[in-house]
Amino acid sequence: MPQLTEAKRSCYCGELRKSDIGKEVILKGWVHSHRNHGGIIFLDIRDRTGLCQVELDPKNIAAEYFESAQKLRDEFVIAVKGKVAARPEGMVNPKLATGEIEVKASCFEILNTSQPLPYTMDSYANMSEENRLRYRYLDLRRPEMQEIIITRSKLYRVVRTFLHENGFIEVDTPILTKSTPEGARDFLVPSRMSEGMFYALPQSPQLFKQILMVAGYDRYFQIARCFRDEDFRANRQPEFTQIDIEMSFITPEDLFEPMERLIKKIFEEIKGAKVEIPFRRIPYAEAMLKYGSDKPDLRFGLEIKDVTDIFRSCDFRVFKETIEAGGVIRALCVPAAAEKISNTQLKPGGEIPRVAATYGAKGIAWFKMEGEPALPNSNISKFFAAETLASLASALGAAAGDLILIVADKPKVAAESLGQLRLWLGRALNLINPDALEFAWIVDFPLFEWNENERRWDSAHHPFTSPMPEDIPLLETAPEKVRARAYDLTLNGEEIGGGSIRIHRSDVQETVFKAIGIGEKEARHRFGFLLEALSYGAPPHGGIAFGLDRIMMILMKRDSIRDVIPFPKTQAGLCLMTGAPSDVTDEQLRDVHIQLRREIKE
Asked: Measuring CA to CA, how many Å separate 97 from each of 46, 50, 105, 126, 564?
């Protein structure tokens, strides 16, 4: 039997077409399926380009080959030599790119066998995520996953090509760096050569890209690996990928223009979608009021409205006490939903109060628009004057059959709980167009947010974000009023990018540090190199980082970023394939001057 192991593959399995009929080819790949039809064996052989049907007919191949073919099983690796032929009339498969042809084998060779699989290549719907991640090398072999990973490679190419063509310089930044507070816990790496000292894995290249602006590189980018040791959520990973960008001598609008063209290029070239630019701009305060979120899903309406003034003089105790305590009353009008949402879903313990309670709301008031003329009606209508209910309906533009939902609480609680209800209703009532792409820049963020637990101000984004120039005098006297020169790019309810104009003056940077409780000594210890660099002629600069994994998730219409990362971790931060994190030897620990407390280890 001839050896095909060393023979050169003539083409990929998915490349053959009708125009190749008559050519002799050598294919190499995996047995996707095998069938014995009346003494003739048919194989589907697969590689990353697709499938090709191979016919093993005892009339065309030697007896020893046909005998060997009886041993073939799914996922065996084989090499096949044969001629491309047209499929018989009525046997064309229009679902396959290679569906008009087949390869009539003259010989083949089993290059490797496979154990029985823990799951089949087409059983995705019935496969647990745990199994997918445990056998990731098999999961990545599935055509569905290979399309994702190949598309991810294409995304890298599109990004690099666009940025290089627009004058950006690609620069690598360190992975082993200094621990600095950037909002999450650092992953720490002990130093063998400096006893008791640690590196940190970068949460982002933030400080280094600012240093590059000080160094005069003007336009920087990097497809950067980032690391954050934080409690994991559905779409968070301990290691992730950013498209990191920084520019000098710019305003936010100077950055928006090329970034919009980059995003347009990505979605049009990879998804074939039509993207209109410029994107809309929405102030943070407006986004929180209308949508209850700083990453609003704009594919449907249902805007939240403040109705505090309508109820300011009412005697309903819950509303009255909320207003007197400085709270607000916000409402959501859901068109034609009075019959679609049942009283069971609305009553205490029902789905709607449960959603709101998750985000802090103590309860939900509701009205259904009923009667002629239609007025808000519910079990609490008796506590309100007819004029108040009419004003409510008018303010919301409510009509017969509409449902009104109301939360009375602190502004943050009212916004977030109604914002999440809005999303729940959008999904439950099928209001969301899954093919729509609705981008928006969220702008005019507050620079600080109050940390209730520690009774101090924190940076809303990070401590290197520039305040609005006119708000700098307020840094020490009224930090709650200071606005940030920050911006996020949102798409369909996801934040896909965020950035800001940076602080380029060391005196302003020190004042911001002071406002968030970082004293001069600590600032010099943690950020001395940055403060020093800013004192040597730092230009005004700013940038943005796009979440490449989130962009991929939206491009591929997946619900989890774990589906679009080649080797992701679980929500608990585990790699089920390799078993990481794992223990290390005592010798390794001694090398880095670490001794474990045995009672903890055990």
From this structure: 13, 8, 20, 27, 25
Residues 415 and 289 sit within 8 Å (Cβ to Cβ): yes
In three-state secondary structure terms, 416 is helix
* Residue 381 tokens, joined: 């209508």
Angle at 130 between CA 126 and CA 136, to 5 degrees: 95
pTM: 0.92
Report the 10 Å Cβ neighbour count for 372.
Answer: 6
Same fold yes or no, 13-112 and 300-432: no
| Sheet containing 304-306, strands listed edge to edge, beginning at the edge strand earlier in sequence | 304-306, 328-334, 403-409, 365-370, 375-377
For the chain, how big is the Rg over CA atoms in Å? 30
- H or E element: which one contains 203? none
The answer for residues whose C-beta is within 8 angstroms of residue 419's C-beta and 6 or more apart is 288, 291, 292, 293, 296, 304, 359
CATH homologous superfamily of 13-112 equals: Nucleic acid-binding proteins (2.40.50.140)
Residue type, 307: V
- Rounded CA gap, 480 and 193, in Å? 45
Residues 6+ apart with CB under 8 A from 516: 448, 456, 457, 458, 459, 463
Q: Find all residues with CB under 8 Å of 401, minimum gap 6, and list them.
A: 335, 336, 337, 338, 339, 368, 369, 374
CA distances from 318 to 16, 60, 326, 393, 566 (A): 72, 86, 13, 20, 51
Per-residue pLDDT, averaged over 442-458, amounts to 90
> pLDDT tens digits, residue range 576-596?
999 999 999 999 999 999 998
Is the pLDDT confidence value at 601 over 70? no
Dist. CA 453–CA 472, nearest whole Å = 26
What residue segments make up the domains of the chain, in order of their start? Answer: 13-112, 300-432
Rounded Cα distance between 159 and 153, Å, is: 10
Tokens for 157, please give them.
Answer: 């190419």
Residue pLDDT, tens place only, 340-380: 999 899 998 899 999 999 999 999 999 999 988 899 999 89
pLDDT above 90 (res 524): no
**pLDDT reading at 602 higher than 60:** no
- 389, containing H or E segment: helix 386-396
What does the pLDDT look like over 100-112, one tens digit per residue?
999 999 999 999 9
Q: What percent of the chain has pLDDT over 90?
A: 81
- Give 481-499 as a DSSP string: GPBBSEEEEEETTEEEEEE
Q: Take residue 200 and report the two structure tokens written for it.
A: 């940190």
At the fourth CATH level, which superfamily is domain 300-432? GAD-like domain (3.30.1360.30)
Q: Report residue 142: phi and psi, to 5°.
A: -65, 140
CA 472, 477, 480, 481 torsion-angle sign: negative
Q: Quote the CA–CA distance of 69 and 64 in Å, as a whole number.
A: 9
Summarize pLDDT for 299-320 with one digit per residue, the tens: 999 999 999 999 999 989 999 9
For residue 274, the tally of other CB atoms under 10 A from its CB is 9
- The reported pLDDT for the residue numbered 96 is 94
Q: What share of the chain is helix, strand, coil (3-state, %, to 5)?
A: 35, 25, 40
pLDDT band at 599 (very low <50, low <70, confident <90, very high): low
Please name the residue that has the structure tokens 């074939």. Answer: 272
Contact 449, 457 (CB under 8 A): yes
